[in-house]
Every structure is written in structure tokens, then in C-alpha cells.
């Protein structure tokens, strides 16, 4: 703005000197050509930098306001669905309607799945607290740069694949040990969140419990397979959120592009994993109903409640992380 004011002042009538212009009539063309060339060069430079300037421009409130608006709309939709399906206004049969005709083995499978889910949350919380008190572990999980990110991703994916690849058997065996290892690693990765403070994390845990409880109620009160057809769109949305999360690690949220990616990762991720929880809840019930009662007769593995619980376990962790980040200030603090 100051440069524009200065250029405008140079064109003020009181500063122009007609007698000087009359004395330089012969070189008037030269001066005009020089002025036009300079103006054209400046214009071409500005055009080349327009896209870059937009991308690296200081972040405003637009991206975060859009994210908050989408989150508010999703919350209203969830409350409306809870009221609609909870009051039994849907005429289609729901999971609750089917539970009266379930064989005992179906009930046992669902019960075991949610027992492992609750135990996974408890082990992760204990692991996070223990890791937060270990300087060596904290130094490892808080290491920045490409190598730190690569090691974290490799640890999470490696333990997860190991856990899911082992055949399930009752009691305490290799499957349960791999499950404890995976949940322990997830807790260690969440250990830096302890710096947010106990009161804030407790609030985030209660909010997460309310979200998970409400969405689970919607899933069991809705028609049995209503959310099972969301797998394709949810997979595409997961790719978008994953790329946005990676991009927000390298682009500062003080820029317009970085703020947009961070908003997608934060608010879009919360909506995405809430939808995933609806899908995965109904998928657990459908799998428990349709899996063979005697898997050995069909030559397949026994029903695996640990693998079934991992999906809703990861959904819950992702919801908790984003709720805690929003309570801590979210994008508003990241912009400062």
C-alpha cells in the first residue's frame, strides 16, 4: 500500500514541471519507451508470481471456518439421524431387530470383539502414560524429519500387519502378544499428546466417548446394511485426508495452502472417521452373523475378534486425536 501511495504522489499535479518537459522534447520518445518497457517487465513478473503468491499467501480464517462449518453440519446430521433411528421411525429392520434371533455364537463373537476393543483402548492409554515418562522413547517418537516419520509409519504398519496375519486362538498366545505389541506402539506414538495436559485429555476422552457411543447407537438402530455401501467413498476420502496430513507436515499452516491441508486433515478427518465408525460397526455385526458357525468344516480360519476390533479401535483413536487438537486450539494456534 505504501508503494502504491508513493507512485500516486509522484503523479500529483503540483510536482509536475511543464518547462522541463518542453526542454526535453527530442528525447520524449526515449523516456516514454523506457517507462513502457519497465511497466511491461513489472507486469510480466507479477503474472509469473501470481499462483505462487496465492499459495504462499498468509493464511486467513477461510479454511478453518469452512472446516468448522462442515463439522457443525455433520454434527447436526448425526443428531438428526440419532433421533430418527433411535425413535424407531425407520420402517426397515435394524440390528436391534435381528438380535432376538441371533444364535449364541453370534452374540459371543460380538461380545468378544468389543471386549478386545475396550482392552485395546486401556492398553493404549497405559502405554502412552508409560512412554511419556521415558526420555528415550519420547526422543524417538518426537523426532522430526523424514526418517522420524518413516520409522513411525513403519512401526505402526509393521505391528498392525503382524497382528492381523497371525491366526486367532482362544487364551493367550502369539496373536494376543502381537495385539499387545501393536496397541503398545500406538500408545507410544500418542505419548506426545500428554503435553496437552491431563484436564484437556480427559475432556477429549469424554467427548470421544460421546461421539463413539452416539455413532454406535445410530449404526445399530439404522437398517442393517445401510452404511455397508459406504466403503468405496470412504476409501477415497481416506486417501484425501492421508495426503493432506502428509502435506501439512511439510507446508507451514501459516500459508494458505498449508492451512487448507491442515483443515482437511483436522475437520475432514474427524467427519471421515465418524463415518468409518458407522460403516465398521455394521460390518462387525454382519461378519459375526455370516461367518461360518464351524469354520473348520469349510477350511477357513476361526472367527477373529481381534482383527474385527482393530477397525473401530483405529477409528476411535483418530477421532480422539482430532478432538483433542480442536480443544487445544486447533488451527487457530497453528496460524500464530
Note down, in words, how this protein is organized.
The chain has one domain (54-335). The longest helix has 35 residues, at 256-290. The protein has 16 helices and no strands. With 336 residues, the chain is mainly alpha-helical. It has helices at 2-10, 18-23, 28-48, 50-55, 62-86, 95-98, 104-132, 135-141, 146-165, 174-189, 198-221, 231-250, 256-290, 295-298, 305-327, 330-335. The two termini are 23 Å apart. 76% of the residues lie in helices and 0% in strands. The chain is globular, with a radius of gyration of 29 Å.
Topology:
Blueprint: H1 2-10, H2 18-23, H3 28-48, H4 50-55, H5 62-86, H6 95-98, H7 104-132, H8 135-141, H9 146-165, H10 174-189, H11 198-221, H12 231-250, H13 256-290, H14 295-298, H15 305-327, H16 330-335
Helix pairs in contact: 5-11, 5-13, 7-10, 7-13, 7-15, 9-10, 11-13, 11-15, 12-13, 13-15
Membrane topology: Multi-pass membrane protein
Subcellular location: Membrane
Transmembrane segments: 114-133, 145-166, 178-198, 204-222, 234-251, 257-278
